[in-house]
Amino acid sequence: MGHNCFSRLRQSKMDAAASMIEKAIITNPTYAEAYNNLGVLYRDDGDIALANNAYEQRLKIDPNSRNAGQNRLLAMNYIDEGNDDKLFEAHRDWGRRFMRLYQPFTSWNNSKDPEDFKKHYATVQVELTDEWYPINAILDVPLSKQLAAGRLFVGQKLRK
């Protein structure tokens, strides 16, 4: 089987999956997770604008959806490239919502001291760039801890 054959097979499976999800949405337009799944399919197919629209539909039904909120931010990085203010506001607003929704654990006898909280749960605002376009971002707690420990530094390239 050649590359084109695999490509057609993959596209056929993606089209079938999208069709099933769209039928589920028609059957139940408030089935919120279907929109997120459809967005992921569109993203994987390279249509970031359609993916973003699907994530936004999901968020209209459930504004607190963690997956759709984070997926939408990733999509916006490509759609709104160069519009740093809009991107920063969207990331900041989601970060604030996320912090309200997913409070740090307070069990296990964590200290209630604000300075202790900052030491263990603080996030850091940074500017990221691909050497062409900078974007403002907020590092999550684990990456913020890595930065504070000197394991992340200016100019470092992060890879998955």
Report on this model:
With 160 residues, the protein is mainly alpha-helical. The protein contains seven helices and two strands. Helix 2 runs parallel beside helix 4 and helix 4 runs antiparallel to helix 5 (84-101). The longest helix has 25 residues, at 3-27. The chain is globular.
Number of strands: 2
Low-confidence stretches: none
Count of DSSP-assigned helices: 7
Task: Summarize the biggest pleated sheet.
Answer: 2 strands, antiparallel
Spatial order of the strands in the main sheet?
Answer: 1-2
- Helix fraction bin: 55-70%
How far apart are the termini?
A: 30 Å
Task: Tell me the strand percentage band.
Answer: 5-15%
* Structural class estimated from helices and strands: mainly alpha
Relevant terms:
2 strands; globular; 160 residues; single chain; mainly alpha
SSE map:
Elements: H1 3-27, H2 32-44, H3 48-61, H4 66-79, H5 84-101, H6 114-121, E1 124-129, E2 134-139, H7 141-148
Antiparallel strand pairs: 1-2
Helix pairs in contact: 1-2, 2-3, 2-4, 3-4, 4-5
